[in-house]
Amino acid sequence: MKPDLRLKVLEVYAAVDVAVAAEAPRCDASGRCCRFTEYGHTLFLSQFEADLLLETAPAYTQPVSRDFCPFQAEGLCTARDSRPLGCRIYFCDASYQDKQNAITEVAVAKLKVIADEFDTGWNYAPLHVLLNAAERPSVQLSSASRESRIALDVL
Ligand code: SF4
User: Fold this and answer.
1) Closest CA relative to residue 54, chosen from 70, 75, 74
2) Whole-number CA gyration radius for the chain
């Protein structure tokens, strides 16, 4: 991903994190939201978000199931820093649903503007579709990610 494009997407993430924090939705830390079929939802994301996620996420095995995220381990996210918008915005707190929809709408609109600006086209699909289409299951693990991957490997 081009550095200037990455910067723009990260700015969208930062704005979303601030907007979500302002709403302070309740999280029960059940991890169910990352087990998609069990929880009854699908995580959609743009190609930008998938590219950014795969820059630092741990390696994973293809084919990826539609049922759960391959980056959840023992109920925790192993790709937290680069997790996509849906993971940043989604909470099961019923009182937050309207705000969640509004934050999502604004953020996705910003990503579409970025797509136009960089003339990339717009690819928006479920997580497993984009992970299965990725040429390599993992790209350039950072040293921190490598260490966490090693920790996972020995568990
Ligand atoms: S990237 Fe992290 S937060 Fe998002 S679905 Fe996967 S494990 Fe859950």
Assistant:
1) 70
2) 15
Residues of the domain holding 34: 3-154
- CA of 127, closest atom in ligand 1: 5
Span from the CA of 42 to the centroid of ligand 1 (angstroms): 12
Most ligand 1 atoms within 8 A of CB, residue of 45, 83, 130 to mutate: 83
The verdict on the CB of residue 103 being under 6 Å from ligand 1 is no
Amino acid at site 35: R
The whole-angstrom separation of Cα 108 and Cα 104 is 6
At which residue do the structure tokens 């984009």 appear?
Answer: 130
Bridge partners for 73 per DSSP: 76
Task: Please state, as a whole number, how many other Cβ atoms lie within 10 Å of the Cβ of residue 52.
Answer: 23
Supply 33's token pair: 């939201």
- Specify the pTM: 0.84
pLDDT at 147 over 90: no
pLDDT of 144 reads 43
Is 42 a pocket residue for ligand 1 (Cβ < 6 Å)?
Answer: no
Domain count, the chain: 1
